[in-house]
Design goal:
Elements (H helix, E strand, L loop, with lengths): L24 H9 L24 H10 L2 E2 L2 E9 L4 E7 L4 E9 L6 H15 L9 E7 L2 E7 L4 E2 H7 L4 H20 L2 E2 L8 E3 L5 E3 L6 E2 L21 H4 L8 H17 L9 H10 L5 H4 L5 H10 L11 H12 L11 H11 L4 H19 L12 E3 L3 E2 L7 H15 L10 H4 L8 H8 L3 E10 L2 E10 L4 E11 L3 H15 L6 H8 L6 H15 L7 H18 L4 H17 L4 H17 L4 H15 L2 H14 L4 H13 L3 H14 L4 H13 L3 H14 L4 H15 L3 H13 L8 H10 L3 H11 L5 E3 L2 E3 L1 H12 L2 H21 L4 H13 L3 H14 L8 H15 L3 H13 L6 H6 L10 H9 L4
Parallel strand pairs: 12-14, 13-14
Antiparallel strand pairs: 1-2, 2-3, 3-4, 4-6, 5-6, 7-9, 8-11, 9-10, 14-15, 15-16, 17-18
Helix pairs in contact: 5-7, 5-11, 5-26, 7-10, 10-11, 14-17, 14-19, 19-20, 19-21, 20-21, 21-22, 21-23, 22-23, 23-24, 23-25, 24-25, 25-26, 26-27, 27-28, 28-29, 29-30, 31-32, 32-33, 33-34, 34-35, 35-36, 35-37, 36-37, 37-38, 38-40
């Protein structure tokens, strides 16, 4: 390893290896402005140090402050940080009258290409990331030989300054690292490593929220950088991973940043970095040759689990660390919730191996001890005191219907559902969701089932219903050995079925040695309803509603499910689970189709009834959370209800999925992916959960990840029509290629011609994109007079679509007549949904086609005001897209491009394929600005 130690003669800051002369770039910049004092200044070793005990002497600081002035569009107000790469000022951007942080690298004529590339890489890396936990870049430029960029000024302090003033409590430290780790995971998802995570690069705002800054050492993961082949060791030694310290840039991965996160956590917990020598060389030598001290030795309040998590991050071998920053955040969250962590405590063998490496002369003795331990282990393994391995989860398989009446399959499913629901109340058990186990109906290879669902046990059984009697057989099987752990047969009156289900759930929990609290025992014992047939109705309706929106006829299925639930409630008005599910059906209809006060009232009534009947039920609070989300987009109250629901629904992936939906609409995309991935882990064979995750990837334009996730969904259910179509549509979004989607549609219709009506909307979109009026006419005929088509999240009524086809054919008279009819219909929709932005957007699109420019712009602005991106990143992006289209058709090209440039950087904005093919963008084609935006989204 080659190290070069150079410091600035003026301020003492670290100088890059190829830096000019003996000054740091910050001092060179100040020299150019005439701000540098003549007398030398005591050094500051870290680029991020702000004013404080180690800052330059007060005379020099005061003189600099007095001489601060204009720098182009910026008025320099105060120096807030400096180092070898540049100087950071608190500044006012005059043109926008806002306070910013301005970072400048002032090299003038001494500038080398390497310095400029490094600086620009810092700016471009940070500017490409849009995340609330990353300090956003506003502007990048050059002036008088100095490169600069401005970023949001975070009112607060650096993490190291804050904890220097007041130590941080353990739980607060862990919660902070969880947030930073999620931010880092977001950057990794976008192909960027930070490579210099340290307390000085974590800013805390006035509310104590962390913001990651200074991507000066970040680089695109897949990009080679000639700058990094210099003698300089990039990073800060006390927080630097071993592979980074030796200059092995090809070995840097996400695990490199995980190490730095662990080092920051170590400092927050103990008050000291894991390694700190007197010089850079000594620090790196300690880092490479020694193990960090146990955190518990420095702070006795740190428990064993938290120490284990921290030390796992600091493993020398990257493969032994957490594989991702997300995995680290998840384990820290487990610690916060007092749940078992995934990291394993370092065993005697591992500690012995490391000790041998540091003490080779004692290797023989260590080997003898290991051999002795092995012999003792063999003896113990043969003893009767060894317990079987702990359960890793259970799946309740569909019960076999042995009744002569095959319609009793729904009755058997109801028994399975209730047993599964009761077991899922036990926090100490991992219980696979019902949707994931249903594909295994009739399967008997328990080993394969265990491997597919990653569980150690399955419960299977059979049900025979004969008049008022029921015979039920249940068996608990260890999937690792295929042994029957427990079996029981019940022959009782039908009225005892719920008591039987409770008894089975309690015995299963006992057999799996699960800890069951008093509240959980009460939840297991509670009967959902007093009527078996009523419960069967509920199960059939739930199957319809839980599949939304991933069915060929989602609106019809939601209405049918609501009707069946009303039948169940009529039989048992006290059936609160039915109210929970009914509220979900009405909420879905309200948001997706029927945005009327009447539908909202139905949802309100159902959710209020659920809470009245089950005020302490997790299901009722989950229903309320979903209602607040779907009906009002009230994210804060929805999260509060979710937190209550999670306490009694520890195994319910719906909690995680709804949390992901909320994150997605708030633009917290990394968190959304994180929550949905956790939902998939809990419900691995649920096609709908996989499809929601895949859709999130599509919205992020992460098409490779989306393709892989659609493939996982199709591996579970190869015949799922929606999954097949969406998987094929990726090629349209990603590459602008419609051929795979055509092929998929032809194959689906060949298998089932009856699906032609359900696929007509997609056929019309394809015809529109391909400018095929004949195909468009056929699709509209199949769609029917009441059918609508959604383009870029905007609903177009049948008459509007007719007008588009007429214009495609060149028949302006018919087009105008159709658009006038469409306008009359849409005005009625606006009247019934006056607070819903997308309906105004549709009206604006119609008026734009009619040449009613003033009205179109007014309506589209009203749509944006009602549904801004800040309120919903999904509908908001769709409305903003409609606004851009309306501006294009109204001749406001500059305004259209202004919106389109924003949309190109937003998740949920238009795809490359949409911009290439969608005729709504035709007025902008041929303009270099449009072609540049299209090229920015082209597949790399």
């Amino acid at each position: 390893m080659t190290t070069v130690t150079r410091t600035c003669a003026k301020c003492g800051a670290k100088i890059f290896a190829e830096g000019p002369q003996e000054f740091c770039t910050a001092c060179l910049f100040e020299t150019g402005l005439g701000l540098l004092a003549k007398e030398p200044v005591a050094g500051v070793g870290d680029a991020g140090v702000r004013d404080g005990p180690q800052a330059p002497n007060t005379k020099k600081a005061a003189r600099s402050a007095n001489m601060l002035g204009d720098f182009g569009d910026y008025e320099l107000l105060k120096e807030v940080g400096r180092g070898g790469q540049g100087v950071v000022y608190r500044a006012r951007q005059k043109s926008l009258n806002r306070t910013v942080a301005l970072k400048v690298i002032g090299l003038g004529n001494w500038a080398t290409e390497a310095h400029v590339k490094r600086f620009r890489r810092e700016a471009e890396a940070a500017a490409s990331l849009e995340h609330p936990g990353i300090v956003p870049i506003h502007d990048v430029g050059e002036r008088d030989g100095s490169c600069y960029f401005s970023m949001k000024f975070v009112e607060g302090g650096q993490l190291d300054e804050v904890v220097r003033r007041e130590p941080m409590p353990l739980r607060c430290a862990v919660e902070l690292i969880v947030k930073v780790a999620r931010t880092v995971h977001y950057a990794h998802e976008h192909g960027i490593l930070h490579r210099d995570i340290k307390p000085g690069n974590i800013l805390l705002d006035a509310k104590g929220e962390p913001h990651l800054t200074d991507f000066g050492l970040a680089r695109l993961v897949e990009t080679e950088s000639t700058v990094t082949h210099t003698l300089e060791v990039l990073g800060t030694p006390s927080y630097m991973a071993p592979e980074q310290a030796v200059g092995n840039n090809s070995a840097l991965t996400a695990a490199t940043d995980v190490y730095s996160l662990g080092a920051v956590l170590y400092q927050l917990l103990t008050g000291h970095p894991p390694f700190a020598g007197g010089t850079t060389y000594e620090t790196i030598k300690l880092l490479l040759d020694t193990e960090p001290r146990q955190p518990q030795a420095l702070n006795p309040r740190i428990d064993r689990d938290l120490s284990t998590i921290c030390l796992k991050c600091l493993e020398k071998n990257p493969r032994r660390r957490y594989f991702s920053a997300s995995a680290l955040s998840e384990d820290l969250e487990r610690w916060l919730k007092h749940e078992p962590i995934q990291a394993r405590h370092t065993g005697a063998f591992t500690r012995g191996k490391k000790w041998v490496q540091r003490n080779p002369t004692s290797a023989l003795l260590a080997a003898s001890l290991v051999a002795l331990a092995g012999a003792a282990g063999w003896i113990i393994s043969k003893s009767e005191f060894v317990r079987p391995p702990r359960t890793t989860g259970i799946a309740v398989l569909p019960f076999e219907n042995l009744s002569e009446d095959k319609e009793n399959t729904g009755f058997a499913d109801g028994i399975q559902d209730d047993i599964l629901t009761k077991l899922a109340k036990v926090a100490d058990l991992k219980v696979i969701s019902r949707t994931s186990v249903m594909p295994f109906r009739g399967a008997r290879n328990t080993r394969q089932i265990g491997e597919a669902l990653r569980v150690s046990h399955v419960l299977e059984g059979s049900v025979r219903k004969n008049g008022d009697r029921i015979r039920l057989n249940a068996q608990l099987i260890d999937t690792r050995t295929d042994n029957h752990v427990w079996a029981e047969e019940y022959d009782r009156d039908l009225s005892d079925v719920f008591a039987i289900q409770t008894e089975i759930a309690q015995k299963i929990a006992d057999q799996l040695q699960a800890k069951v609290s008093l509240d959980e025992k009460a939840a297991i014992a509670k009967q959902p309803t007093s009527d078996v047939s009523t419960y069967s109705l509920y199960v059939s309706a739930a199957a319809l509603i839980d599949a939304l929106p991933w069915t060929p006829t989602p609106k019809e299925d939601a209405l049918r499910g609501a009707d069946v639930l009303n039948q169940a409630i009529a039989r048992d008005p006290g059936f609160f689970l039915a109210y929970c599910k009914l509220a979900g059906a009405h909420d879905y209809l309200y948001l997706s189709w029927d945005h009327t006060p009447e539908r909202l009232a139905l949802a309100e009534s159902a959710v209020n009834s659920a809470l009245r009947l089950g005020p302490n039920s997790g299901d009722a609070h989950l229903a309320m959370a979903a209602h607040l989300y779907w009906a009002y987009l009230d994210y804060d109250r929805a999260r509060a209800e979710l937190a209550i629901a999670a306490r009694t629904l520890p195994n319910d992936p719906r909690v995680l999925q709804l949390s992901g939906f909320i994150d997605r609409r708030q633009g917290r995309w990394s968190e959304a992916v994180h929550e949905m991935e956790r939902a998939v882990e809990m419900d691995p064979r649920n096609v709908h959960t996989l499809m929601n995750l895949a859709t999130t990837y599509v919205l992020l334009r992460a098409y490779k990840e989306a393709s892989d996730t659609w493939d996982r969904a199709l591996a579970v259910n190869p015949n799922n029509v929606e999954a097949r179509l969406f998987r094929a549509k990726i090629d349209l979004d990603w590459h602008g290629d419609t051929a795979p989607l055509h092929a998929a549609r032809r194959k689906i219709l060949a298998d089932d011609p009856a699906l032609a009506r359900d696929m007509a909307e997609g056929d019309f979109r394809l015809a529109l994109f391909e400018r095929d009026p004949g195909a468009a006419d056929r699709a509209l005929a199949a769609l029917g007079e009441k059918g609508t088509v959604q383009v870029d999240d905007i609903d177009l009524n049948h008459s509007f679509c007719e007008g588009l086809v007429a214009r495609m054919k060149g028949n302006e008279a018919d087009a105008t007549a159709a658009f006038l009819a469409a306008r009359a219909q849409q005005q009625e929709v606006v009247r019934t949904q006056p607070d819903y932005g997308p309906v105004f957007c549709t009206l604006g699109l119609i008026d734009a086609q009619l040449g009613r420019k003033k009205e179109a712009l007014q309506e589209s602005r009203q749509a944006v005001d009602l549904t801004p991106v800040s309120k919903s990143s999904l509908e908001g992006a769709g409305v903003l897209c409609g606004f851009a289209m309306i501006c294009a058709w109204a001749g406001e090209r500059d305004l259209a491009f202004e919106q389109l440039e924003i949309l190109a950087k937003l998740p949920a904005g238009p795809s490359y394929g949409d911009l290439r093919l969608n005729p709504f963008w035709d007025p902008l084609r041929g303009d270099p600005r449009f072609e540049k935006i299209v090229a920015s989204l082209a597949p790399k």
